[in-house]
Amino acid sequence: MSPFSNNRGATLLGVLVLASALSLFFLALGRGILLIERLKRETSYRKEALFLAVNTLEDLKRERLEVPAWGEVREGELKAVFKVQEFSGELLLFEVEVFKEDGGKLYALETLSFK
Can you tell me the mean pLDDT for 70-76? Predict the structure, then answer.
């Protein structure tokens, strides 16, 4: 008999432990990639929502609306809901909230402007 014949079980056990460790590593790697993709998509939504909110606010300030006014603007999968109301004698309050189509709120902006 060779001196290494008693190590057959240990070698098999080592291979099984290595295979288990590699499978756990690749599982964690896959989950990390999915998390990164979800964060990229969410960041893209937030960037588009911010642009929509700011552009809606600027458009509302340029227009001369009768106060109070409200409505919504849709752009792709996003919806901006706005409201304009009198804040004081010379000031108007502009509020814009941006939602995803599934109802999740992404941004809420408000500003004051002279009439």
Answer: 88
